[in-house]
Design goal:
The protein has 238 residues and is α/β, with parallel strands linked by helices. It contains eight helices and nine strands. The structure holds SN-glycerol-3-phosphate (G3P) and magnesium ion.
Length: 238
């Protein structure tokens, strides 16, 4: 049985007070663990890329309303439970460097031009390879736009339900990774994805019994909130 690639979900290690999701503190913790990849969520608002998951304020950041409708001033003054402001993409790129793969998940609309700008700027100025990044989304239109504008950047197609045409719908996007909900991860799906040359990653799995079952199916990696535990599982220590 091969080890499951360990992808720290939302920066990894979710502790509301000290290392909240999509915080620099969480990412630092995941880097210290030596995870294989770190996944973050992004929105483009007011011409900048912000690293956060929710469409609305209120859960992690105080306030109300849609994130896309906030002013630059409001966004700059929001803080997490550990007093960190919302991380920006350049801050995360700088922190992660080439220490592990960074999986950037596009959550909000109209991200591609600014994402390409910030990513290529960072790579050109730091000598970091674009190979160090995977850009994924449930939004296949933005992935298609990305493929047209920066084809060499690895793409990940996320599927939420159980579509009739399953992996076939991903073909025009030529993904590196197919990201599946656990309910969609059966033998037929995994074999079909592998036949097409895609890696299969499953979100978001925190329990050993499911890691075992997914590993037996031939799944390549899992997004997890408990990366340290997954590493122990991979090392046969659980
Ligand atoms: O990228 C996989 C996973 O993060 C998708 O779900 O809602 O946690 O972004 P969500
Ligand atoms: Mg995500």
């Amino acid at each position: 049985m091969t080890a499951l690639t360990c992808i720290a979900h939302r920066g990894g290690y979710l502790d509301r007070d000290n290392t909240p999701e999509n915080s620099l503190a969480a990412i630092r913790h995941s880097l210290a663990l030596g995870v294989d990849a770190i996944e973050i969520d992004i929105w483009q608002v007011q011409g900048q890329i912000w690293v956060t998951h929710d469409r609305r304020l209120g859960r992690l950041y105080s306030g109300t309303g849609l994130i896309c409708e906030q002013s630059l001033n409001t966004l700059r003054n929001l803080t997490l439970g550990n007093d960190e402001p919302i991380p920006t993409l350049p801050q995360v790129l700088e922190l992660v460097g080439d220490q592990c793969l960074l999986n950037i998940e596009i959550k909000g609309p109209n991200c591609i031009p600014q994402l390409i700008k910030e990513l290529t700027y960072y790579c050109n100025h730091s000598n970091t390879s674009l190979d160090n990044y995977l850009v994924s989304s449930f939004d296949q239109r933005q992935l298609l736009q990305l493929k047209r504008e920066l084809p060499r950047l690895k793409r990940g197609v996320l599927l939420a339900g159980l579509p009739l045409d399953q992996t076939a719908q991903c073909e025009p996007l030529e993904p590196h990774v197919l990201g599946l909900h656990v309910a969609a991860a059966d033998q037929a799906m995994v074999s079909d994805a592998h036949r097409r040359g895609y890696l299969v990653w499953v979100y978001t799995i925190n329990h050993q019994d499911e890691w075992q079952a997914l590993s037996e199916l031939g799944v390549d990696g899992v997004f997890t909130d408990t990366p340290q535990k997954l590493q122990a599982f991979n090392n046969g220590l659980l």
